[in-house]
Amino acid sequence: MKTKDKYPNLNKGDAGKKLAEKFKTKEQRIALCEAWCKHLANGFSKESFLLCDPQTFRRYMAKYPQDFDTQKINEAERASRRFWEQLGIEGTRGKEVKIEVKRKQNGEVRTTTQGFNATAWIFNMKNRFGWKDKIELGGGTQNKTEIIVHDEKSAKNLQKLIE
User: How many CA atoms lie within 13 Å of 113's alpha carbon, on the beta-carbon side?
Assistant: First the structure.
């Protein structure tokens, strides 16, 4: 199914068009937000969204905040993270990870993976969610403490506590 068939409320347009020309109406912007949320909730990155790039999406959000449900967007971002975390949990437990690839009429997309590649998953989490292997705390070479933190927010909070 083509994007124009899947999202009939959206204008066809190329990336070079001005902001106001691509998604002119409130209905088009609401449909854009819904498509964005479905895309993220299915585990895909913001950068792979086909209807517009992340910067354009943020510009529309800033210009037309009433057309973008920030609660739904936040839920979709959490669902994306949960998708990848669940994949990691199942894989590290030794389960064979199976998620079918099927494009459904309601726009949901599922992917299929058999087996588990922990290294690929770790790199994915680092790139998608800012995971770090470790943080070094302290000044010189003496009295260094090493703490392993798995997300950027915790790392920043820890750094604030130290300073």
Answer: 18
